[in-house]
């Protein structure tokens, strides 16, 4: 079982995460931000991973510290769960539609952290979730996971749909990238290391 466990505690947030990559899509998410809980639940469901995440933080300020620190902690747990990345596909791609919205997500577990985020997310609040934190979340996750991540919003109008499309697309691309393939001997790289 490929399982990543990580805890992070600062003066702003306290986070614990357990992420099982070979799961069934179950989620137990408690961040204090309802819409963000919904997105992380979708991430687990559509990636077929089991995710437990408990957070306390300074919501009296806003949601920024919680969302970004969750990205950092989830990235570390993901990196931990993958270990040396032996046997994985390494790459994942998804075109994800949701009603009027379409997004493309491309992943490479290259060990070279990078986020390319192309497209506009309207600057609105969805409950207590600040929509522009979506990019911050994925930047933090990519940095800590050692992940090259390209997110492209091809089109869309409804902010809820745009963000949900990104999270679901990331989940499906993640599922493909971390899948074990018997054809992969060792590491999927001509260098022999990622």
Fold and architecture overview:
With 194 residues, the chain is α+β, with helices and mostly antiparallel strands. Helices cover 34% and strands 31% of the residues. The protein has a 4-stranded mixed sheet, with helices on one face. A 4-stranded mixed sheet has the order 5-6-10-7, with helices on one face. Strand 5 and strand 6 (101-108) form a beta hairpin. The longest helix has 20 residues, at 159-178. The mean pLDDT is 95.
Task: Present the secondary structure layout.
Elements: E1 3-9, E2 13-20, E3 27-30, H1 34-47, E4 50-57, H2 64-82, E5 91-98, E6 101-108, E7 114-118, E8 125-126, E9 129-130, H3 133-145, E10 148-155, H4 159-178
Parallel strand pairs: 3-4, 7-10
Antiparallel strand pairs: 1-2, 2-4, 5-6, 6-10, 8-9
Helix pairs in contact: 1-4, 2-3
